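Each field is listed here:
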Amino acid sequence: MLKLRDGFSVIEALIAVAILSIAVIGLVTTIGTFSSTTVDRTVLNCLVDAASTALYKCQAGVDSNPNSTCGGSTISIAGTSGYCAPATGTCTTVTAVATASPQGKTVSLTTQICNFN
């Protein structure tokens, strides 16, 4: 007479653990990649916002704060190059450079500021 076995053998349990381990490693790798991509996008958005704000403040004749914090990064504005208040009837090119620490990423935005008064 055949006797029915109850439970799993050690080999079956080891195979199940190996398959589960491979799935968990794949999931952890995907989460790590996603989080680093999200941080990079957040830093890039902060840099663009900071440089854009510096250009708007230059155009309005307001001094911009050279440092700010965004997304856990320190954003530094190197200043705007170009003259923010051109003579009447002329335009000037102005550039703002924003750098994120500690990532070392940099964004440079350039615009034309015109005075038609």
Remarks:
- The mean pLDDT is 81.
- The chain has one domain: 10-115.
